[in-house]
Amino acid sequence: MGNIKISDNSAQWISDCIVQFTGTAENSLKNAENEPAWEKPLVGFSRGNDPLWEEFKKDIGPFYVTPSEIFTTAFPSIKTTPEELTIISWILPQTEQTKSDHRKEKTFPSERWSRSRKYGEEFNVKLRAHLVETLKNAGYEAVAPQFSPLWKMAQSEKYGLSSAWSERHAAYVSGLGTFGLCDGLITPLGKAMRCGSVIARLPVPPTPRPYEDRHAYCLFFAKGICGKCADRCPVGAISKEKGHDKKKCQEYIDTKTPQYIKEHFGIDIYGCGLCQVAVPCESRIPVKG
Fold first, then answer.
1. 4 in a domain, yes or no?
2. Distance between first and last Cα of the chain
3. Residue 4 has pLDDT above 50, yes or no
């Protein structure tokens, strides 16, 4: 797609680029059947001057970086303003077979889910690089926040373990979903997914946000019902009273799941994701029906 001039249809052009790459052989669970790791992606856009970026920095912590800070670090010689930047965000939904397998599990992740966590995320890394390169070939500077030297893990005084850039928060700003009781992002394609983003210096209209409340799509916060994700957690790291206990969740994922996945599936990875399936928000926005 090199040397393509982006026009008013820039959003469609970029979305097509992401969807087409997801349709290649790179998108694979690397199992015997060579099944795709992800179904068709959902893409959204936001602008670098959206006030939510500065709100995140104030709320999460001063270590949280804005799109402008990431872009300026990547391209220090280019003078730009926040409104010139577009954040491209995407959702990679789990396949129906992966979700079906994972629903049956109670304690440890299924094989397909483990494969999507390793090989599916490896594809997500390639997707970031592919989009950055495609934009570069078209004459637009772009950077993936995950590749930035500013990306790091840090401790938020308010939220505990956090990162300097959150792919889920970028998706939230880009109109792709809101947060649930377990901190997962509930999108029009559900919560069983992974996401990614790229920041580019080009004009793309922002995707409308059909919500103001960051918990608008969660049945527990919107209607005071559900809490099924808490029931699904094998270590009680989610509760209706306190929400998501990141420390307890991380300890389980880091210390218990890698050995199980290695012994049973021969894959070096950690993961869980049990709270993302067998719940009303697995594949849809539950408050819409």
1. no
2. 40
3. no
The residues near 11 (Cβ < 8 Å, ≥ 6 apart) are: 43, 45, 204, 205, 207
Are the C-beta atoms of 119 and 37 separated by less than 8 Å?
A: yes
Structural domain total, the chain: 1
Cβ distance 29 to 120 under 8 Å?
A: yes
* Positive or negative torsion for Cα 187, 189, 194, 195: negative
Does the residue 5 lie in any domain? no
The helix (H) or strand (E) run that includes residue 197 is: strand 193-201
Domain membership of residue 123 as a residue range: 10-288
- Does the structure show a pLDDT above 70 at 3? no
Model confidence at 289: pLDDT above 90: no
The separation between CA 200 and the C-alpha centre of its own chain, rounded to angstroms, equals 18
| Cα separation, 108 vs 64, whole angstroms | 32
At residue 8 the predicted structure's pLDDT band, cuts being 50, 70 and 90, is low
The phi, psi pair for 252, rounded to 5°, reads -65, -45
For 156, residues 6+ apart whose C-beta sits below 8 A from its C-beta are 60, 61, 63, 162
Are 176 and 167 in contact by the 8 Å Cβ rule? The answer is no
Gap between the Cα atoms of 70 and 127, Å rounded: 19
Answer yes or no: is 100 within a domain.
Answer: yes
- Cβ pair 199, 67 in contact under 8 A: yes
